[in-house]
Fold these 3 entries.
Entry 1:
Amino acid sequence: MHATHNNHSEVVEILAPHEHGKRSKNDRTALMIAAEKGCAETASLLAPHEKGLADSRGSTALMIAAQQGSLEVVGALVEHERGLKDGSGCTALAYAARAGHRGVAELLMAHEKDAAGWTVLMCAAALGDTDLASRHLGEKGQRDRRGLTALVLAAQNGRGEAVELLVKHEGGASGWTGLIHSAYLGDAGAARSSLHEKGRQDDAGMTALMWAAHQGHKRAVKILLEHEKGMRDKDGNTAFMYALRNKHTDIAALLHEHEAPSWTPLMCASFTGDIEAVRMHLSDKDKKNSEGDTALIIAARAGHEAIVELLDPTDKDGVTALMRAADRNDLATVRELAPLQAGRRMSGDVTINGWTIYSGTALMRAAARDYIEVVRLLVKKEGGMQDMYGQSALMSTARNGYSDCVRLLVEKEGGMKKSDMWGNYEQTALVLAAQNGHSKCVRLLLEKEGGMKTSNGWSALIWATRNGHTDCARLLCKHKGERDVSDWTDLMYAACIGNANAVRNNLQKARIKSSDGRTALMLAAQNGHTDCARLLLEKEGGVKGSDGRTALMSAAEHDYLECVKLLLEKEGGIQSNDGLTALMYAAEKGYLECAELLLEKESGVQNSCGQTALMRAAARGYPECVKLLLEKEGGIQSNDGLTALMYAALNGHPDCIELLLEKEGGMKDSGDQTALMKAVRNNQVECVKLLAERERGINRDKLLNIAIEMGNGEIMAILSK
């Protein structure tokens, strides 16, 4: 951009392939800057790399060049950007005509006439060229892509002579009545004589009062005010707004009490783009007019980006007004801000409903909150964007089970992959939905993402079955894409979905393992299919997966009691590669009945870290399981000397502490710390209250030092008693 600003075309040629697409603070690309400065050679070098990009108002480099009247730059860009339209539906041709650049308009007519729907007469009218218009009156009555005639285009661009010529030929076709014509000219007498035509609107929806206000004809405004006040054009503008926009302040003041009594000075300044006046009235920024619009909405609708920044500035983390509006589900504000700020990314990160977004967009923030209507609006502008780790809005909705948002996003974002912060894993939205058991989302995503794998070779089907989501697994098993990428046997598919007859017919494939090391028996147990597990038990019972897990562990982890009963005799007591048992899986999930079945065979066992089932139950806060396991496992310490009481204290489970305190109170870990010290370090106030009487005297200096370090006054008071 620095090279472009200084018109160093040789440097631009070197840098363009590497730095193209970057934007300045005011949302301009290097190509737009070249167009604005009239640097044709630099624009030619940049065009292949940055063509088609638009600024926050929808203007392309060609439009900017046309507005400036730079014939050479327009010539360099027209082949790259012809026919493109801004947010109002205008092409570069309209920009040139509006600015009165005849040579540029003539060049663009050859390229954009069809895109704009303009005839030569329309171009002449917009330019105010009555000679050219006279020669093309045969085109009268035709309308452009926005439904406007040459007469309306001439009037909108202030081409009085062209209006006088065309009103005789197109007045009726354009909806121009005698009253509208009189108001446009400011002929108060003629306007008074034509009041029988009051209330009629032309092709743009403008009334006689609006045209009088637009042109600054105060006498005509006074005559028309009582008859047409409050009417709106096709874009929602009133006569007051036309007067304000065109800086006819005396007329705006006259119309204010009739059409906009609830508009504050801040709103008026925001509409006209008066930055100094906005600064003077910032204290009114939260006020709303009778239509519910704030100054922010009015400024955004008018396209005044600098004023939007004054009213609701982008913060140090790059969070914009649009993002904040999306966060609070403010649809009206989002609608007006989107043309100005959509596509921007914050520089920091934010966690919403358990999903962390890194340098994300407004759409991602709305999707993470399940704000359906905001998502519907923003997907048109931000759909397909990914954060710095490849996460999309669709992924957050799939992970959280927001099926309505998934439906809105899947067309634009289906098929994308994300990586974690270390660059691996490559999750898809379908995998996230399957991992978390959201079958409605799985159904919506299957067509676009079925068969895609994560970097470890696992498909959504494998993730669904590993997490015990039977409904998702059933859906995925039926999808050809998922079956094609899986190394599962027919026996495994049958066991997974609970088809006992198919299991019986495929028993010859027993003892085969999938790529993630599971057997058909494990799949049956993991999904609670007892009939299938019974058929497979003889051939596959006792077989361990690649991680050392058994079918019994899978059944216990998902609380399938009947499967646990069936498998207990053959697989009870087996430990995984990490030393885990079925009892540990049941205890850490709080599955009391499964734990009761497994207690006799597996209690007292420790995993590779020295943890017991009791410790895992205490860490997760399941007092019923703690009560069950306490007699057999109370007092055991892990490899680091931790007890179940310490795990409960660390994680803030006072109900478990009450059960464990008598048996384990006063014990210390290998770092000479008690459960009380761990509760203090983690600011677990209720746990501190329970532990203090028993343990406050143990290594008191160390305890108080920890308390001082944490700085919790309530805890200090408890320990001082």
Note: The chain has 49 helices and two strands.
Entry 2:
Amino acid sequence: MARRSDHSREELREMALSAAEQIVVEQGFEGLSARKVAAAIGYTVGTLYLVFENLDDLILHINARTLDRLHTRMTASQAQCNDASNCLLQLGQVYIHFADEDPHRWAMVFEHRFSEDQVVPAWYQEKIARMFALVEEGLEPLAGQHTHDEITQAARALWGGVHGI
């Protein structure tokens, strides 16, 4: 049987990500499977695995897109803000609104556990670091004489307080 080549690798990637996100939105991430994604895009599971290493890799890319959307909204909220306390509160409000508006994708970022042998790629770690940086930037004007390390620690404590430890 000849290999189907209706779409480029990049087109397949985008189709798979869009289909997977739709499945997550409708069914929660527990409803996500490689078979469902492949069926939704009209390709085999084998073709899906030519684009993504495994289901964890697909989920990692979905989570990255979710973090990008959240980062964009949080950054936009800060563009017009000029009072440090209100800016920090506004970050929190945008975050909570995002989680309420898109609970399944948001939950997948925090609830999906990767296999023990999977190394989280640097590009994904950078997306997480950008989120912490927004909180750190929000805390800096309120920090007084505190060092950068103390601000970083406070941002992580605040983040942990929001999500539970």
Note: Residues 55-79 form the longest helix (25 residues).
Entry 3:
Amino acid sequence: SESIAATLASYMHFDRDPETINQLYNSFDNISADDIKRIANQYFIDENRTTVTLSALDKVVGFDQEVDLNGAVAKIEMDKANPSAPQFAVLDNTNDSPLIDVNFLFYTGAAADPVGKKGVAALTARMLTQGGSQTRSYEDIKKGLYPLAGSFSSQLDKEMMSFTGRVHKDNATQWYQLISDQLLNPGWREDDFKRLKKELIDGIKSGLKSSNDEELGKEVLYSELYQGHVYENFNSGDLSDLAAITLEDVKAFYSAQLTQAKLHLGITGAMPDALKIQLMTDLTALPVGDEKRLSIAKAPVLKGHHATIVEKNAQSTAVSFGFPIDTIRSDKDWAALWLVRSYFGEHRSSNSYLYQQIRQARGMNYGDYSYIEYFPRGMYQTKPDSNLGRSSQIFQVWLRPLRSNNDAHFATRAALFELDNLIENGMSEKDFQATRNYLTNYAPQLVASQDQQLGYALDSEFYQTEEFVKYVRGEFAKLTLDDVNRVIKENLQTDDIHYVFISGDGKDMKQRLLSEQVSPLKYNSEKPAELLATDKVIESYKLTLPAKNVEVIAVDKVFK
């Protein structure tokens, strides 16, 4: 009521009639894009502009370099009149390496899947790398690439669709003829489409849902945290949507989303100049487009503790939990939070705190890790892939499968207990220095290969940061322990959390959670008295889950 009254108060004084606001809103329906352009061109021009600054300095550097609006408009009109001029961004890191890496990175992805067509981005990406062209079948392309030792593949995430290729410089021209035909002159064969659609559906059914409990738990967590958001759906799509997607849907997505405006081309290695010119020219055949990147809303607000239990035929219980965070790589506190993440749960590292407490001290599972950026395929990789840039991220804890529901309950309590301690007490100076030193030397390993250097450089463009290693080391050089402990308190919390359990007995897991059932550990060997005393605290540590916030769902219903 206050909001309504405030809005009325803003308009009623014009005509002293409450209908004024309705008339205003009705008038909006009659405004067209052309009307807005006409008014903008009439008033938002250089001649009408007055610029004012207030500063303690006698002169503000760069203030006298005003934007030339008329010139900018003229350039846009000229570009429209000359559509062959490249409208895509180019990161040219050409060097003397005999291996050439090319990355066609489009700022689009699964978040652009239309309603009812979840999976069309994934199908499009596969059709362009695992399908034929207008002139060659996919089998012919594979036969052509094999003797060249050339590759061409795709990776899809919410806001990025990356097509990457590698070849020796001596074979670059032949390789390019094959892969450019796939990307720019796709064959759209019905047999390729049916094959790849079946592979995606089988990958969800037989791969993710049947035999990859850990990845399933992490993906369900993202889906639950982003309900009603463009991040909600699994990157490969929903089964029912995939079944209904047509080849025409894929063609429409290709035309609408793979545009020059969204393309960031990365090149490294000794690419011949003539081939580079041809590549640049050929890419101008893509539609120009207007949208440079997807518009992503903030994550839905999470309130309280929630749990989703996916019941399936499983001998162990996998656990993931987390919550949305506001800090992404472009933010000033990201480096500090990245350091905290490493200390608490560096991926596949025995030095991380969670690993030492849950696996090393108690021998409960294979590993326990934490993340502040999307990291798929973690059970297969020791380092994250590049080109997974997102405008919204979550803090996540991943507990690898536990032997039973009881152990999963205890491990979840232990992780929450340690997270509470971290928030309350922060890091010590010793741990801060050790982690900073480790990451300072570890960061270059993330870009150890030429293709990863290119991928991370493109990510730096997405986030508008310096080159990754320089960025991280520069931020670390300025960090203090006080900074890090402030960032912990400002970004981490345990009031609002969503837990996901992949369990063979969902009913039992739910009963344990709701009753706060004690979850004692039994050891096969003698343990220190101090550890046993801590276990007594952890085994009844409250997760505080209301009954209305705990759901058991059959695995058949997931991503359906």
Note: The first strand starts at residue 89 and ends at 94.
